[in-house]
């Protein structure tokens, strides 16, 4: 449906009920006289199709903008900046040391108080 630029739009009819209509309405062209369509989708099916069409349009527009090279105010393409600090010949090495740290997830609401050994020794 996207290839033919067809979508469902929600309209409110005279009675106050909402319905999804095909936009552009090709039913006038396809149907002859007073004939009715053989199979008509339910309201929820049309709603789902309309939602998926809109999501696909958004995905395609995002992909289009991601492919574009960044440009400045005047429309000139901007060169990508290289990372500073690392030269092309240098490689990043992991530093080996005797100090290690392990992060334990969680939350502790304990009150910490410094105490001395003389407070622990029984007199």
Sketch the topology as an H/E string, one letter per element: EEHHH
Low-pLDDT residue spans: none
The counted number of beta strands is 2
Structural class: alpha+beta
Can you give the helix content as a percent range?
Answer: 25-40%
Strand content: 5-15%
Number of helices: 3
In short:
It comes from Portunus trituberculatus. The chain has a domain at 7-67. The protein has three helices and two strands; from the N terminus they run ββααα.
Describe the structure.
The protein has helices spanning 27-30, 43-67, 117-120; strands at 7-12, 18-23. By secondary structure, the chain is α+β, with helices and mostly antiparallel strands. The chain has a domain at 7-67. A two-stranded antiparallel ribbon has the order 1-2. The longest helix has 25 residues, at 43-67. It is elongated and about 105 Å long. The protein starts with 6 loop residues before the first strand and ends with a helix.
List the helices and strands and how they pair.
Layout: E1 7-12, E2 18-23, H1 27-30, H2 43-67, H3 117-120
Antiparallel strand pairs: 1-2
Give the tags.
about 120 residues, alpha+beta, two-stranded antiparallel sheet, 2 strands, CTF18-RFC_complex, nucleus, Chromosome transmission fidelity protein 18
């Amino acid at each position: 449906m996207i290839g033919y630029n067809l979508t469902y739009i929600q309209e409110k009819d005279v009675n106050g009920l909402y319905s999804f209509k095909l936009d552009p309405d090709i039913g006038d062209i396809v149907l002859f006289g007073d004939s009715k369509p053989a199979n008509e989708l339910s309201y929820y099916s049309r709603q789902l199709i309309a939602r998926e069409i809109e999501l696909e349009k958004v995905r395609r527009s995002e992909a289009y903008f991601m492919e574009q090279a960044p440009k400045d105010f005047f429309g000139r393409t901007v060169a990508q900046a290289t990372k500073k600090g690392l030269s092309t010949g240098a490689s990043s090495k992991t530093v080996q040391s005797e100090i290690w740290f392990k992060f334990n997830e969680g939350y502790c609401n304990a009150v910490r108080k410094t105490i001395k050994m003389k407070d622990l020794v029984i007199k």
